[in-house]
Amino acid sequence: MKRAFAVVSWLSCWLPLGAQVSYDRLLHADREPQNWLTYSGSYKSWRYSPLDQIRTGNAKSLELKWVYQLDTTDKFEATPLVVDGVMYFSEPPSDVIAVDAKTGRAFWTYRYTLAGNVAVCCGRVNRGLAILGDTLFLAALDGNLVALDAKTGKELWKARVVDPKLGYTLTMAPLVVKDKVIIGPAGGEYGIRGFLAAFDAHTGKEVWRFHTIPGPGEAGHETWSGDAWQRGGGSVWLTGSYDPELNLIIQGVGNPSPDWNATVRPGDNLYTTSVIALDADTGKLKWHFQFVPHDAWDWDAMQTPVMVDAEWQGRPRKLLYWAHRDGVFYVLDRTNGKFLLGKPFVKLNWLAGFDEGGRPRVQPNSLPTKEGTLIYPGVQGGTNWYAPSYSPRTGLFYLSVWADYYSVYVEGAADYVAGRIFNGGNIRQPLAFNRNTTLFPNEQQGYGALKAINPKTGEMVWQVKFADLTEGGVLSTAGDVVFTGNREGYFHAFDAGDGKLLWKVSLGGYIAAGPVSYSVDGRQYVAVAAGHGMFVFGLRE
Amino acid sequence: MRSSGIAVLLASWAWAQAPTESQVNTRIDPELGRKLWSANCAVCHGAEGKGGRGPDLTSGKFRHGGTDDDFYWAVRNGIPGTEMPGFPLGGMESVQLLAHVRALGRSAMPPPPGGDVARGRGLFAGSAECTRCHRVGGMGSRIGPDLSDAGARMPPSDLLAALLRRGESVLPAQWYVRAVTRDGRIITGRRLNEDTYSVQLIDAQEQLVSLVKEELKEYEPIKKSPMPSYEGKFTREQLGDLVAYLASLKGTP
Asked: Rounded CA gap, B15 and B89, in Å?
């Protein structure tokens, strides 16, 4: 009897481990609260965990369960995946590690060798992985898409996507849709011509490619003049979302190049600083919405598209929530890109209002000049790529912001040299780009905060101010807890309803990644990349 | 390969950016240099160049920018591995700015005549009570800024000014804090680090103290210098001696 029980429990324990991550499982990721199957937790990109063992009432008894220390000193921006008790994450620049999600002990490590030095604007980072079947997908910094056997870490295939010598790099977590792996390149400070492309998950062969900067003969090309489109930017370095009913991939597009000298690229510069909706099978554009036509401030649309079906002015609608780097919270109809709401969530001085279609009326004298133009928000934006979260229980949208902060945007030379920095100017600002605890800014110069926004109005419901700035992603849970870390190295649990601090721990290193939640053997965990380690917390047993 | 690339870069930049002879011969306009400094540099290096987020540039010694060419390169391209960005200044502007920066470092100026280093040292440790707050070469208190290299950081005229002024605003890195605990204990000290929930400081007894803000009744940073003015407390000769002593402090090479 005892033996039979042992066999049964052995089977029930191990059977799910053999199960592959089918597309159907990705499609219904919310039915598997124990797992975290995609970068944003689900195709809707809510970063919401239906787990509720950790609640407002007991979060104060969270404690460290394990830490996995990296070998690298590169900035750790990755979101882990958790599949049936195994956690997978990327170690920057482009390594992959599989560990036991309960203990943090490693199953295997995959070391990727970069092809020499790679020019990057903002660190040799990687934001995460994707999985389909038994295959993990890694977008390696120097331009290869790599497929790995999830059980062994063995390389299955490697596909050359871009050439790093021309300023193209890969930093995003891929998005798997059906049998395709979707990625695009970073390099908006290097005069690249961006794209989003789909690769066959089994062979690595490119299936379709959508150029975010349309070439001659393509729609939108008329928004460029001369040959500026050839180095027009439009990078893609953050994972988009997928709407299976509409069969649309919703993806943000980066800034135009050069960043701050817009005089060399007259026109609206489509599809930079826009959201695009592409047919997932063909890569054909279905609609687009440009947040900032002729962007001269580097406010690229590298934010996670949050898709919510909700009532809008009395009727149910398929909505898209987007807190954009330009300091405005937008609501769009994601069936057609129609503008429904634009509401500033931080101090800004460039916007005079919107026309009916949502095109911003830019205040006069806002463009960068040789002498410098002081603009709110500054170059890092009101928010940036830091993952936001939406909780269906509170109906609130949570995000990290840099509030009330400015940069002086200086227009400079824009001489393109392949593979070299091509930002067309410079930035001056009182705040530090990097973690700085002894010279922290005062509040008049701006501050970092976690904000909760009512997405129906764009109004702030509550905020928590920090002494330093914050780049932390946000997680909300069915236990009505909101988790986020910050640049000071604190990782917090807040009450999702009112922002009350429930628990915090000092992890002693820059937190610039989004937390996730998962469970193993019925116990809920919360994981976050901090400093140079993956930290995992659970309730005291 | 990489270094030769940099060399090529340097050469091409020098060709493009180094001021021409006629520009070098251009009359230096102190007002223009000061304006350029205020607009571009002061936010990090301080209005007087005494440093802040960026280093003190008043010593006359530069880690980057020792030669004029080094200076132009650093200003134009920024300094890799630091927060120093590049500034798109023209050749003319660079010349004016360089003149201003060179003028910041006046440490080569002789101390006011008549100052005696030995007498100054005696005053510093004696009746002036400087060592109650300041430290030189391992002697004295750590509560105030260490003055072991004061002469390398400040010209004598600035040292004299520092002895005479009172209540001057100081950079965030030199703020003091005043805290009152729930049981009424008052703690003051120089702030070493601060975050949302806590502050770390060195108190008047030179103890390293870490305070949790929510456990305090009162907490405020003191943004003005707590140093008393020596105006009227010493004769002009004594001040000259103190300045001579401070100016002789060049730190450990």
From this structure: 15
